[in-house]
């Protein structure tokens, strides 16, 4: 009998398949792609996410899949003068972990799926028309080239990402909000860019991010106003996307980036935050990763959350024969707490870095002065490095946010 069917072979689903199959459970992993390929997904794992990968037993997949340690963070911004630019050491936030990791998402997923198969899981690629029916005896149906299939496992994990395919089928609803749009693309030929330095900043009407992946490759991201959502679509979109990095705040006006060579598709999307309006589960079904709710992508913690979800749910499944909804109360409670903190922090970062015009520039400038004068004002930035529960509580109070923005009014 199949113990667990996992719908979605991304970071959350594939890592869960590894953990559960290694723990002796009979696992089927369903993935809609026929082969793993670059879909422009998150490719940055915070140190606390790396710790979760270690606990799940999938850390080696990141290294073998091209994982690259980032050691410094640079902020180049129109609100930052040249003499204020400094490198932030990112390697000492969690002992024994080092800096965050940048990696090719699809390559790591492929290796995780192979590891799960090596532990006894069954991987089904190109699985389409997947339906999930919750209940004491859940049912999963799907189609492949061989025809229709049905599985009746003890448990289903929904890990289909922001599309929330399983969540919608079991009646989980989300409260959605959108602050801006984002876009991303892989490039190569960034040989003059410091290989272990990630960068972000805002100028004009774009907020940019550069995440090196080693050997001249990097994932580029832009965040921009919703009214510009068509700017990088259509013919010439790739060229316009690269040209957006021609910024006065970047060294040599961003020449290292603007002359890079596209090495993957360009994708743009609404940067949506989704908070579940109830527990992200039903009888016989539990949601993990972005499918269970997510914060604005500007925060960069989506994959770390996916790893935490996977590890927490797997520990429950492997630790007891009680797989009732009540058994997952600790997961639901911790995740609600975590998502609340991440959403709060993402809102602050969006207001500081993804709003544009003279007022926004002055807001960032004054916020930097406040943070330089009072280190406690930088507390929200810790969310990129350490787990939400390890960030001081005052950083998530309305009083803190009001003071931060009042000081910058």
TrEMBL record:
Pfam families the UniProt entry points to: FAD_binding_3
Protein name: FAD-binding domain-containing protein
Keyword annotations: NAD, Oxidoreductase
Naturally occurring in which organism (per UniProt): Acrocarpospora corrugata
Domain of life: Bacteria
Molecular function as annotated in GO: FAD binding; oxidoreductase activity
Origin organism lineage: Bacteria, Bacillati, Actinomycetota, Actinomycetes, Streptosporangiales
Positions of the FAD-binding domain: 2-336
């Amino acid at each position: 009998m199949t113990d667990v069917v996992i719908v979605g072979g991304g970071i959350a689903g594939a890592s869960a398949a590894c953990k559960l199959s290694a723990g002796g459970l009979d696992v089927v992993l369903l993935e809609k792609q026929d082969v793993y390929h670059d879909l422009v997904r998150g490719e940055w794992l915070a140190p606390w996410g790396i710790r979760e990968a270690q606990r799940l037993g999938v850390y080696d997949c990141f290294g073998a899949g091209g994982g690259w340690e980032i050691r410094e963070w640079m902020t180049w911004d129109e609100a930052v003068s040249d003499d204020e630019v400094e490198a932030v050491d990112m390697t000492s936030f969690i002992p024994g972990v080092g800096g965050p990791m940048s990696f090719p998402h699809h390559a790591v997923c492929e290796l995780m799926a192979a590891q799960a198969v090596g532990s006894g899981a069954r991987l089904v690629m190109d699985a389409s028309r997947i339906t999930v029916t919750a209940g004491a005896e859940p049912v999963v149906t799907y189609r492949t080239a061989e025809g229709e299939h049905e599985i009746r496992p003890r448990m289903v994990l929904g890990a289909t990402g922001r599309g929330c395919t399983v969540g919608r089928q079991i009646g989980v609803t989300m409260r959605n909000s959108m602050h801006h749009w984002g876009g991303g693309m892989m490039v190569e030929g960034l040989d003059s860019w410091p290989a272990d330095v990630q960068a972000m900043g805002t100028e004009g009407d774009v907020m940019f991010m550069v995440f090196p992946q080693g050997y001249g490759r990097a994932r580029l991201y832009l965040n921009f106003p919703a009214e510009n959502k068509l700017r990088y679509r259509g013919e010439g979109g790739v060229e316009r996307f690269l040209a957006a990095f021609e910024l006065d705040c970047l060294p040599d006006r961003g020449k290292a980036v603007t002359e890079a060579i596209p090495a993957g598709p360009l994708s743009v999307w609404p940067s949506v935050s989704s908070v579940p309006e109830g527990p992200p589960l039903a009888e016989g079904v539990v949601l993990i990763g972005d499918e269970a709710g997510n914060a604005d992508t500007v925060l960069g913690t989506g994959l770390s959350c996916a790893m935490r979800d996977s590890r927490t749910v797997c520990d429950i499944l492997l630790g007891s024969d009680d797989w009732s909804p009540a058994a997952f109360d600790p997961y639901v409670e911790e995740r609600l707490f975590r998502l609340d903190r991440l959403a709060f922090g993402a809102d602050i970062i969006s207001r500081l870095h993804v709003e544009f015009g003279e007022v926004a520039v002055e807001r960032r400038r004054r916020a930097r002065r406040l943070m330089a004068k009072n280190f406690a004002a930088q507390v929200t930035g810790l969310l990129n490095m350490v787990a939400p529960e390890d960030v001081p509580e005052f950083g998530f109070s309305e009083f803190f946010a009001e003071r931060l923005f009042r000081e910058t009014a």
